[in-house]
Design a protein that fits this description.
- Helices cover 11% and strands 39% of the residues.
- It is mainly beta.
- A hairpin with a 4-residue loop joins β2 and β3.
């Protein structure tokens, strides 16, 4: 086989590969939007799809921010939970009752009247309903830093949290 036929064959095989595994030409953007959120900024840490086909994001630079978007891209609600210190939302999970558990870290002593820190940065979990109203809160920590980076919903609309701790006191007897 001549050198030029080998090169043409390789080019044809490569172009077929690109067409097969490249972007689908029939893909259509369903919607796109920009959201102008005032405050400390929508520093998104986690973004999940919801049971109703919409989306929820959590984040914030010094507040817990929870932002709900409909399946058509319409902003439904934005809730901000903050206190007198650093509040950082890192994870969210949807619960069986269509609410959400949001978790992260906080060293506020008055987290929107829901939280009192055990020391420095502590795990803080907020359970909110499908409209963003707080149903319960929980904080865990000791005299040093803790922060929850993962959350999974449980069948009783509670949650299991995972993160780190540097404490050996308070709610944390060992690590």
């Amino acid at each position: 086989m001549s050198q030029s036929i080998k090169i043409i064959t390789i080019i044809l095989l490569f172009s077929g590969f690109l067409r097969t595994y490249g972007q689908d030409r029939d893909s259509v953007i369903q919607w796109e939007n920009c959201y102008d959120i005032e405050g400390t900024g929508p520093e998104v840490q986690k973004f999940i799809s919801t049971k109703d086909g919409g989306f929820v994001s959590v984040g914030g630079k010094s507040t817990y921010q929870v932002f709900k978007i409909s399946s058509t891209g319409k902003a439904q609600w934005l809730k901000t939970f903050n206190g007198d210190g650093l509040d950082r939302a890192d994870a969210v999970a949807q619960t069986m009752d269509a609410g959400y558990v949001v978790t992260g870290g906080s060293n506020s002593t008055n987290h929107t009247n829901y939280h009192t820190t055990n020391g420095s940065l502590d795990f803080l979990a907020l359970k909110i309903n499908d409209t963003g109203t707080v149903e319960w809160t929980a904080d865990y920590g000791g005299s040093k830093d803790e922060e929850a980076f993962c959350v999974a919903a449980t069948s009783d609309s509670g949650a299991i949290l995972a993160g780190y701790t540097n404490s050996k006191d308070g709610n944390v007897s060992s690590y």
